[in-house]
Amino acid sequence: MVSTAPSTRTPAMAEPGPLRPPWSARALIAAGLLVAAVAVTWLTFWWIGLSPASLAAGLDDTARLLRRMWPPDLPGAGDVVWMIVETLLIAVAGTGLAALASVPLAFLAARTHRGPRWLRPAARVVVVLTRAVPTLAFAILFVRIFGLGPPAGALAVAVHSVGMIAKLLADAVEETDPVPAEAARACGASEVQVAVSTVLPRVFPALTGIVLYRLDINIRASAVLGVVGAGGIGVALQTALGSLNYHRAAGIICVIVVLVLLLELLSVAVRRRTAGHGTLPRRTLPRRIRAGRSPGDTAGTAALPAGRAPHDVGWDRGRVLRVAGAAATGVVFLVSLWSLHPDPARLSGAWPNLRSVLTGMWPPAFSGDLLMAVLESLLMALGAASAGAACGLVLALLTAVNTTPWRPLSAVVRVLLAVVRGIPDLVYALLFVAALGLGPFAGFLALWISSTALAAKFFADSLEQLDPLPHEALTSVGARRWQAFAAGIWPQFVPSFTGNGLFVADLALRESVVLGIAGAGGVGYLMQESIATLRYDTTAAIVIAIAVVVYAIETLARVARRHLL
Question: pLDDT for 186-195, tens place per residue?
Answer without folding.
Answer: 887 777 777 7
